[in-house]
User: What shape does this take?
Amino acid sequence: MQDNDWSEESNDKHLYSKEQRNNIVVKTALIGDPFVGKTSLMVKYVEGKFDEDYIQTLGVNFMEKNIYVKNLEITFSIWDVGGQKDFVTMLPLALSDTVAIVFMFDLTRKITLQNVKEWYRQARTYNRSALPFLVGTKFDGFVTLPKEEQITIVEQSRKFARAMKAPLIFSSASHSINVQKLFKVILAKLFDLRVSVEENHNIGEPLLELYNPLTSNGTTVASSSSSTG
Ligand SMILES: Nc1nc2c(ncn2[C@@H]2O[C@H](COP(=O)(O)OP(=O)(O)O)[C@@H](O)[C@H]2O)c(=O)[nH]1
Ligand SMILES: [Mg+2]
Assistant: This one.
């Protein structure tokens, strides 16, 4: 299982002097229940490593990563909010000026998906304009579940994604699946670029479904890529 992602550490960086580059800060918040893998995803994206013993987040963590697209320097400012109830007080800080909110749940614990509803409600009281994304984590564990259970979880998460008008992405920080792609999708959505990541609608594979109002009536989403086998 591999992440064959775009090369965001591209050489474009060297083609432009610092003065020629424009910098944009993209503040992104990762939100969801404790233990779903928020810190792991952030660390994997920013530092490229997965550490099982990563310490539990107290309050708010934040990390930055620069990526270069032509003469643009994009700074992802990623805020990872401790999921414990006590830290709900940190939400206003994490969500002010945030342009993308990644709602995260653990694909192997259904309750964490149910709880996204409450996280969404909370988050929206502090930030109404940020673009939402729905991410199911620990895809590596999910694929070991019985097929029927996988199907149920896929259906439920699609339902949530449609209700939130959010792209749906299944990821694994431990197996480097869709970690880079998630941030690529965020950029593409924010700047209204034509997304160059391939969607995946196949159950049993790491889903990557962009929210499309035209095809999001519940049945058509499954059809587009399954014919390719
Ligand atoms: N199998 C698996 N475990 C993961 C993955 N991501 C995180 N974990 C584990 O899940 C636990 C919680 O992760 P953490 O990032 O601290 O979650 P947080 O509380 O949401 O920040 C840790 O034991 C991680 O090692 C993943 O993609 N696959
Ligand atoms: Mg954490």
Summary: Residues 147-164 form the longest helix (18 residues). The mean pLDDT is 84. The CA atoms of residues 110 and 153 lie 7 Å apart.
